[in-house]
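Example S7 (C-alpha cells).
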C-alpha cells in the first residue's frame, strides 16, 4: 500500500484515492499535493504551484523536505507551521494554529522529532530538539519544550505531562 492510499485511509477509512475528495477537504488536498511534491520528478513539477497556492491561501508552511510518515492528517488546515528539519512519524494529526519549530540557542537547539500516533491540538506548540514519544496527546494551547514519553497527555504552559495508556484513543482513528 503506497503512502497516498495510507493517507486516504487515515482521512476517510478507505484505501480508495478518489480525485473528488481533493475538492472537498483542504487538509486532504494539501497532504496530497505535499506527497506529490515529495515524490519528485514530473509530479513535483506539476504539483508545486498548486501546493504553494493552497499554502498561501490557508497559511500552511510545511516543506516537502519534511520527513512525514504515512497517515498524516491536517484538521482545520489554517495557520500551521512545521520546520523543514522536523521528523513526524505515522498517524500524526495536526490542527489549526500548530507550530513545530526550531530553537536557535541553548541545550535544546534544533528541531523536534515526533513519534507515531501523536495528536497536536489547536494552537499547540512544540519547539527545540525534543522527542515526542508514541501515543501522545498534546492538548490545545500546550507549549512543549521538553521530551515527552510514550503514552502521555500533555497540557498547559509550561507543559504538564500525564502518563496514561491509550492517550490518543478516540482522537486518532483509521491507523495505518
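Recovered sequence:
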Amino acid at each position: 500500500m503506497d503512502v497516498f492510499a495510507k493517507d486516504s485511509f487515515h482521512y476517510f477509512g478507505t484505501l480508495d484515492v478518489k480525485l473528488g475528495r481533493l475538492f472537498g477537504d483542504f487538509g486532504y488536498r494539501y497532504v496530497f499535493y505535499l506527497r506529490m511534491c515529495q515524490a519528485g520528478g514530473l509530479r513535483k513539477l506539476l504539483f508545486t504551484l498548486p501546493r504553494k497556492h493552497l499554502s498561501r491561501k490557508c497559511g500552511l508552511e510545511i516543506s516537502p523536505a519534511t520527513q512525514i510518515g504515512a497517515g498524516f492528517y491536517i484538521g482545520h488546515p489554517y495557520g500551521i507551521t512545521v520546520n523543514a528539519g522536523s521528523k513526524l512519524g505515522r498517524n500524526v494529526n495536526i490542527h489549526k494554529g500548530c507550530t513545530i519549530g526550531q530553537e536557535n540557542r541553548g541545550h535544546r537547539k534544533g528541531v523536534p522529532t515526533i513519534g507515531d500516533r501523536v495528536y497536536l491540538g489547536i494552537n499547540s506548540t512544540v519547539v527545540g530538539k525534543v522527542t515526542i514519544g508514541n501515543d501522545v496527546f498534546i492538548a490545545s494551547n500546550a507549549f512543549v519544550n521538553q521530551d515527552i514519553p510514550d503514552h502521555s497527555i500533555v497540557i498547559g504552559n509550561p507543559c504538564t505531562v500525564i502518563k496514561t495508556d491509550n492517550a490518543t484513543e478516540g482522537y486518532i482513528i483509521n491507523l495505518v
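Notes on this example. The first strand starts at residue 60 and ends at 62.
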